[in-house]
Design a protein that fits this description.
Elements lengths: L2 E3 L19 E8 L2 E12 L3 E10 L2 E10 L3 E6 L9
Antiparallel strand pairs: 1-6, 2-3, 2-6, 3-4, 4-5
C-alpha cells in the first residue's frame, strides 16, 4: 500500500506531487472548510496545483462518470487501492 499525506507539511510543495499515482485507483481524503470528504477513483490529471479523480459507474442502467478536482491545499491523504478496492496493493 502506498500512502501519501500532507504535501504542505514542510512549507514547500513540489510540482506534480501526485504524478506517481496517475492512472491508478486511489482513495483521497480532503477537506472543504470544516467538512471532510473522501473520493475514490482513478487519478487522471495532476496539474501541479490540484488533482482530478474520475470514477465510472452505472446507475439505473445508464453509464455515468464523476470527476472531482481537489486542490493541493485541501488534500489530507491519498491511498493507492488495489483492483478489488481494498487499501492493499
Amino acid at each position: 500500500m502506498r500512502y501519501y499525506c500532507c504535501p504542505y507539511q514542510y512549507g514547500v510543495a513540489a510540482l506534480h506531487k501526485y504524478e506517481s499515482f496517475l492512472g491508478k485507483r486511489v482513495e483521497a481524503r480532503y477537506r472543504t472548510d470544516y467538512i471532510y470528504h473522501s473520493a475514490t477513483g482513478v487519478i487522471t490529471l495532476d496539474n501541479g496545483s490540484s488533482i482530478f479523480i474520475e470514477d465510472h459507474f452505472e446507475q439505473d442502467g445508464k453509464k455515468k462518470m464523476l470527476r472531482v478536482e481537489i486542490p493541493y491545499g485541501c488534500i489530507l491523504s491519498v491511498i493507492e487501492l488495489s483492483l478489488d478496492g481494498s487499501g492493499r496493493s
